[in-house]
Amino acid sequence: MKEIIKSIKRAPYQSLTAFLVLFFTLFLSTALFISITFLQSLLNYVETRPQVTVYFQTKTTPDNIFKVRDDLQASGKVLSIKYISQEEAFNIYKSLNKDNPLLLEMVTADILPASLEIYAKKPIFLPEIAEYLKKQPGVDEVVFQKDIVNRLLSLTNVVRKLGIGFFAFLIFMAVVVLMTTASFKIALKKDEIQLIQLLGAKKSYIRRPFLFEGAFFGLTASLISFLIIAGVLAYFNPSLGSYLKGIPSLSLNLEFYQLPVWPLNLIFIAVTFSLSAFFGIGIALLSTYLATNKYLE
Fold it and tell me: Is residue 111 within 8 Å of residue 89, measured between CB atoms?
């Protein structure tokens, strides 16, 4: 640690430049990661909701509703269908409005419609299912969420593509600046390096203090950038809670694990910081290695 502090004091402006480049790179990268993660997990949540919901008129008999359900299941285009009776709809209504007794007194099961919640096997079947339902007798309303899913999917794809491009630019800029900074610091120790080379020092021994300094910058920059982002998230947490009201939880479906994203939790925070620190230290070590390797060849 003493050697790192001594090296920083020897070239303070170059050290500050390296730190600021790492800081802004990690700050923006972490913000992009959180944004894309939230959008992707929100898209996953919407896609797991009923894709088509059909509400029937209150006078429609269960037999007629079951006929529509059976016809849909026989079409081969439906993954699953859930029937919600008037009594079940009333129980759901009571659960949603349990804190408002006045609303509960004004509603009975008889005035709430029965419904079918339908999941299609493929998104391309959704328009056909919705059009079929609209033509059936006793149908009061068809709620079709394809537009919502498509808009969210488009937004997620745009943010992901822009994020990847911006992320690549940040990496390139950071590596170039950090290599230049490391090369300048190596030049300052040129005489010292040549002396220990004459004494038989290996490349790994000469490279080690520069790598330690780079890792220190990467870890410090990732920690400070993450603390600022965590503070921003904590500040806007009530607003996010209000905006996402009605959504109990969000998670990112990975191949081997479901990462919980919302509500904010220690697992998501720990994963975000670990990725930020790994990325920051990795960039710093790579840049320093390339700079020292070029000089020592």
Answer: no
Report pLDDT digits (tens) over 152-185.
Answer: 667 767 777 777 887 788 788 888 888 888 777 7
Assign residue 90 the CATH number of its domain.
Answer: 3.30.70.3040
CA dist., res. 211 & res. 196, Å (int): 17
Distance CA 218, CA 281 (A): 4
Task: Work out the average pLDDT over 89-106.
Answer: 72
Residue type, 119: Y
Does one domain contain both 232 and 289? yes
Q: What is the pLDDT of residues 210-232, one digit of tens each?
A: 788 888 888 999 999 999 998 98
Is residue 224 within 8 Å of residue 23, measured between CB atoms?
yes
Q: Chain-wide mean pLDDT for the chain?
A: 80
Does one domain contain both 35 and 179? Answer: yes
Domain count, the chain: 2
> What pLDDT is stored for residue 227 in this prediction?
92
Residue reference for tokens 């607003």: 239
Distances (CA, A) of 236 to 94, 243, 252, 264, 278: 31, 11, 21, 11, 26
Torsion of CA 227, 229, 230, 232, to 10 degrees: 120
pTM of the model: 0.66
| C-alpha to C-alpha distance for 203 and 197, rounded to whole angstroms | 8
**Domain final residue pick, 144, 179, 212:** 144
Q: Do 157 and 281 belong to one domain?
A: yes
**Residue 94 shares a structural domain with residue 177:** no
Query: First CA to last CA across the chain, in angstroms?
Result: 27
> Does residue 195 share a domain with residue 68?
no
| List of residues 6+ apart from 49 with CB closer than 8 A | 145
Q: Which domain holds residue 182?
A: 2-47+149-296
